[in-house]
Design goal:
heterodimer; A: alpha/beta; Rossmann fold; six-stranded mixed sheet; 36% helix; B: 277 residues; mainly alpha; 0% strand
């Protein structure tokens, strides 16, 4: 069995002619929180979307190199991107529960449309399980049939996490999940990340070095499409080897 | 005078003039509605229910009302499914050649002379069938309804932020499911608005019916392959006749048409309360 959840081999990503990701080799171990940090526009979100083939929604994007998930190249010809995305869930920068669906239906949607549950009873159980996993159950159990508009930003984001968890993915990709969330909501979500780490591998993209330091086990510093430094979080923050990393973690380089 | 007072004075003058201009702009609309009510209401109240249900000889326009509803229903049945698919196509493939062509053609069809649509329906349906029919009229109306609904569908779906699209694909859904099970329901209010506007449009159309439905005012319609009447066509016919009685009937029929139109439009106002994102 492969040691790594995600492994990239000389991954390059282009938008049209422009090279956004310039040859990246990363190894993301299982059951860890791996943070990818870097200033805005360095290609973090683009890189993250290459891990579950969501990047293909953008017609201009072109990918070279390999992305291995549990040892299997997800860009091989016989791989269906739909299955990749089911296995690798995604949480977005802007909390985006579907506004026209109730809280319950938001969690149930993926299960229903993918025909993953047999009956109503199983659905109820799975929805509850997902909401509990996302530590949202207690807050919404009395209003499952209301719309996400009644939730706070942090709650919405946990609903999105529940929606993703319901499909029982193995890896969670998080694209600046707290960028639009207040401090209390941010703390709740970061607490949740520690819980989820036991069962999932989490790749967290953030533009705040402090968040990477608080939450992650490993961290990679991405700058202008290249990984400048990667390692255990405590090492990278205490003894950065690269001058740029030092500047970034101390807040000089933004 | 202080500069503040001058600015304040300018603002008041501007507000007043814009209010007056707005009022002048919408005045004709209220004048039309008022005139139709003033002239039409006495006709309807005098005949009461007979006016709504009776045949023409009995002083009613029942068959025409029935005809109008049949035409709205039939044209929706033909036009809406096509319109939805065309709208979705134009949204999903905006950069393909066919997608671009679709968008341009929809814009042309929106403003296309409706009488030509009537001529077209006559030549490909009424003449081969050898008779005017509800079907021929509904076909012409469906062509008129289609671009409205398609453009509204495309526009409503375009308003959906990209992040919801990503989220849907992120759940491992196929493109068909993303579009028809998530994004279409997500923009259903906008689409519904288009549907209602299209229906309101065809409810009042006259020109495409001139050569297609024939007219039927002495008995209720029984078949879609036989001629039917319609309220706007009846008004057109009545006003052309020299008889004072017919003119009175036309006013009554106008009020009925206005009410049918409003009946369709009120849900639009209600549905415009968009989904909170």
């Amino acid at each position: 069995m492969n040691k790594y959840a995600i492994e990239t081999k000389d991954l390059k990503i282009y938008y049209g002619r422009k090279e956004i990701i310039k040859g990246i080799n990363l190894r993301i171990p299982k059951h860890t929180i791996f943070a990818i940090m870097g200033p805005s526009g360095c290609g973090k979100s683009t890189l993250l979307r290459a891990f579950n083939r969501l990047l293909e929604l953008n017609k201009d994007a072109r990918i070279e190199g390999e992305v291995l998930v549990f040892g299997k190249n997800i860009y091989a010809h016989n791989v269906n991107p739909i299955n990749v995305r089911r296995e690798i869930g995604m949480v977005f920068q802007y909390p985006n529960p579907f506004p026209h669906l109730t809280i319950y239906d938001n969690v149930a949607l993926g299960l229903k449309l993918n025909n993953l549950v047999k009956n109503k009873d199983e659905m109820n159980k799975r929805v509850r399980w997902a909401l509990e996993k996302a530590s949202l159950w207690e807050e919404v159990k009395d209003r499952l049939w209301r719309y996400p508009a009644c939730l706070s930003g942090g709650q919405k984001q946990r609903l999105v996490i529940a929606r993703t968890l319901a499909l029982k993915p193995k890896i969670l990709l998080m694209d600046e999940p707290t960028a639009n969330i207040d401090p209390v909501g941010t703390r709740n979500i970061e607490k949740l990340l520690f819980e989820l780490k036991k069962d999932y591998t989490i790749v967290l993209v953030t533009h705040k070095p402090a968040q990477a330091a608080r939450t992650s086990d490993y961290v990679g510093f991405l700058y202008l499409g290249k990984i400048i430094e990667v390692g255990q979080t405590k090492n990278v923050f205490k003894k950065p080897k690269n001058e740029l990393t030092k500047k970034y973690v101390t807040g000089i380089l933004v | 005078m202080s500069e503040y007072k001058i600015r304040k004075g300018k603002e008041i003058a501007f507000t007043i003039s814009i209010t007056i201009l707005t009022f002048l702009g919408i005045l004709p609309l209220f004048h039309i509605i008022a005139t139709v009510f003033v002239n039409g209401l006495p006709v309807i109240t005098k005949e009461s229910f007979t006016f709504l249900t009776g045949t023409f000889s009995n002083g009613g326009i029942g068959p025409a009302i029935a005809g109008t509803f049949i035409l709205i229903f039939l044209s929706s049945l033909i036009g809406l499914p096509v319109a939805l698919l065309v709208g979705v196509y134009a949204y999903e493939y905006p950069n393909s050649i066919i997608g671009k062509a679709t968008e341009t053609l929809l814009q042309i069809m929106l403003e296309f002379p409706t009488i030509l649509v009537g001529v077209f329906a006559m030549s490909i349906i009424a003449i081969p069938m050898g008779t005017y029919s509800a079907f021929a009229g509904a076909f012409a109306l469906a062509i008129i309804l289609m671009p409205y609904v398609a453009v509204y569908t495309q526009e409503a779906m375009r308003q959906i932020p990209f992040t919801y699209r990503e989220a849907s694909f992120g759940l491992g859904l196929s493109r068909i499911k993303v579009i028809f099970r998530v994004l279409v329901p997500l923009s259903k209010r906008g689409i519904l608005t288009g549907v209602l506007i299209g229906m309101a449009k065809v409810a009042g159309e006259t020109a495409p019916l001139l050569f297609t439905i024939g007219g039927l005012y002495e008995s209720y319609p029984v078949s879609v392959t036989k001629p039917v009447g319609a309220v706007p066509l009846l008004i057109y016919t009545l006003v052309q006749s020299p008889s004072k009685g017919n003119h009175r009937m036309a006013w009554g029929a106008s009020l009925i048409l206005l009410l049918i139109f409003l009946l369709i439009f009120i849900p639009i106002r209600v549905s415009l309360k968009e989904v909170k994102l």
